[in-house]
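Lab intake sheet, docking and co-folding queue.

SAMPLE TYPE: protein with bound small molecule
LIGAND NAME: zinc ion
LIGAND FORMAT: SMILES
REQUESTED OUTPUT: full 3D complex as structure tokens
PRIORITY: normal
SUBMITTED BY: R.K., bench team

The fields below were copied directly from the construct record.
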Amino acid sequence: MVAAFAIAPTPDEARVKLTTVLEKLPTPTVTLLEKGDASFLHEERVRRGDTVASLLTRLGINDREALQFIGSNRQTQEMARHLRPGDTLGAKSGEKGKLHALYAELPGKDAMLVVERRGDGFEAHEQALQLSTRVVIKAGEIRHSLFAATDEADIPDAIALQMVAIFSSEVDFHRDLRKGDRFSLVYETFSDRGQSIRSGRLLAARLVNDQRVLQAYWFQGEEGEGAYYAADGSSLRKTFLRSPIEFSRVTSGFSGARFHPILRSWRAHKGVDYGAPMGAGIVAVADGVVATAERQRGYGNLLVLEHQGSYSTAYGHLKNFAKGIRKGVRVSQGETIGYVGQSGLATGPHLHYEFRVKGRQVDPLAISLPRAMPLAGALLGRFKASSKNLQAQLQLAGETTLAAIE
Ligand SMILES: [Zn+2]
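RESULT FIELD (auto-filled):
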């Protein structure tokens, strides 16, 4: 049965080379994932549509008895029912794919479920988490899509999406990515006795997008919330996002024209159409207040947000509005406000997006937008000191990947 889940060998070669070079980094604060363990300790993220059998196969396990135990034990059944895409599972295996141990974090419990081989059989028990943090550096190059690249570099979705969010005022990840774009990331992971459990915060990111170099460093001053800043201390948070379509695995394929913005002549059209799958999330491009949420002839279900200054944005042809969205409600940047549909005069599912200044449509792709306040004075000094090390690591990671792949 398990043998039916044949999989292609993973393209490990580039990663192994990368790690080998990175280990020479003279930075004691950074612990790298040790690839030497990989033949015995595997980690896999749950994908949509996964079954326990498909997960075990990806974990390199080929063990009929283990599969039978996991399918019939009450605790493992319970664990399997709660698995969600993005969760991480770890497994230790021996020769010929025999399972030695399986680890799964139990959501909301501060514990993990451990399945271990005991003599001829298996046993399952819960174990309290002893979390420790480590910092990981990864790099990749975009060939087909962002997620294909992060999958190949074994970067968790949560970290990939943090990078998207951080640069989303600079880059429309649906439209601006190019083959050959490169990224390097420094992020925290939490592990329990050497076993990765989940990813934490992205600490630094570098993205080379179409020859433009973008950098982001997490920094927290003495008070208030932390935020991301460019190397010179300027804020990466802008008042408007570049794209109103939520970035996800579903909407992320930039090479397959299907979900691309349909760029009609803007002059005649007074808006930008984003082709996207029915039901894809639409986000508020800036903080604002809902001015309109109703059906309007050609626009179909139309949402209009008023933002500070004299800006407003309009979103047409919606399938429906997000829960709680109605006239007068306040929304935050990045919040889901509705879903892509084809209501009104639309031939297929897409979002009609308008950017308005004093009620007049302007081309959102051409406008330059205000930024949040930069760091200054003593805070800027502290930021520069704290980001220096990260900056060197990012730079090196980026260069190393290229060298390793070519
Ligand atoms: Zn349109």
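REVIEWER NOTE: Residues 1-39, 254-261, 402-406 have pLDDT under 50 and may be disordered.
SIGN-OFF: pending second check by T.M.
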